[in-house]
Predict the 3D structure of the following.
Amino acid sequence: MITIAQSVEEIVGSTPFVEEALGKGLLNLSAYARAIRSQIQEKHLKTVTVASLVMALKRLQPRCRGRHVALYDLVKLRDITVESSFVEYTFRNTPTLNALQRALIDLTEEQDLCMNFAQGIHESTLVVHHVLEKDVDRLAKKEQVLSKIPRLSLITIRLPADTVETPGVYYPILKALAWAGINFIEIISVSSELTIIFRDKDVDRAFSVIKGLIGDSGAADRD
């Protein structure tokens, strides 16, 4: 049978921001205990005191603290690059979409431009430099365009080579953006690079937030 302490840990673990606040000693334990009390009582079908929940949170706190210290130590950002003037298209997957991709690959190679094409089960996303926007519109006339978002900027973050073996690497980056209230449009990742796509109006703030994670140890380039 699950205990009260296990239920508390389950609730805290499902909300990373609360888990981190608890680990750093920033969480008001009594207030949070009162907030989750009804949820715990409903699950256990009995009355639970606030004091017992506070005690469970205090016992959980050291484990949360160690977990997040280890996580931040593992994330060693190397440098960030900012690129502007991109457009994102989302297409419905069709048998002819691969032909569009091949044609655009030829165009990007000729003009030495960046392109990213990601295919999902039902939809595909294309991110291209705005120089190719008219070409995409022309070549994709017969495709089902679900959305088109212009005026985008890309922030690319170089990560250590062992990133693929490190759990939670993206968490500090995305958490910092969320806490700053900055929305992103898309995420693209390869083995040792993470690219986050923002609207132009948000990229300066996003750059400042991410650069703050690197500190003086990383390099930053803007294009």
